[in-house]
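Narrative of activities, Objective 1.

The group set out to show that a structural description can be obtained from nothing but a protein's sequence at a throughput compatible with the screening campaign. Below is one input-output pair from the validation batch, recorded exactly as produced.
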Amino acid sequence: MTVEFLYPALANLYGEAVEMKYIMKCLPDAEFIFTKVNEEPAFVKKDVDLIYMGPMTERGQETVIEKLTPYKERLEQLISENKVFLIIGNALEIFGDRIENEDGTVIKGLGIFDYYSKRKMMNRYNSLYFGQFGEIKIVGFKAQFSHSFGEDEKEGLFKNIRGDGLHPGSNFEGVRRNNFFATYLLGPLLILNPDFTKYLLSLLGIENASLPVEDDIRKAYEKRLKEFENPNKTYLG
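Output recorded for this entry:
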């Protein structure tokens, strides 16, 4: 099994470097590729099972769009072939049509999805999130300067229970197409949501996976779940 971490020196904000370390602990026998910004991604010529990319600065987004644009068709091919992608935070915006700045300037995205994003750099959005993925309850956090719009609800990742989705008023959070998963949620997401992590591992052919420090992680998840389900916690919306 091969896992590619795209641009980890650039795409590692909000503690998501820990997410990468956790993936490595979940897949101890896998080959891990850490692709640098000036390198050709491994997925271009190599059979990669999981592609991960974390959140980054706004300038970093522009750099990554430039680097990935030559491989747009290859990315679309891999998505259509059900390769597993985990795209975290504002990295999801790179795959949309465009990113709009407050001054009216526009950054063209990869255009793999139809949604677009709007930045508000003087208004950081911080919140908790509680949602549903099939039968799995999802908990997480958000810290972002932008929201995404124009999405197709059929390609939503998590159904909202409490908290805002891709933008205030949206009924769902994140984007999914086949095994491409992209979400604004931080946490790190996999550590906070052990059942979702096991689902992703099942897509990689690992059934009934035993997670690192699973007992502690599950206790923390159950405790957080009770808090998020409490209707008296009004800060969840």
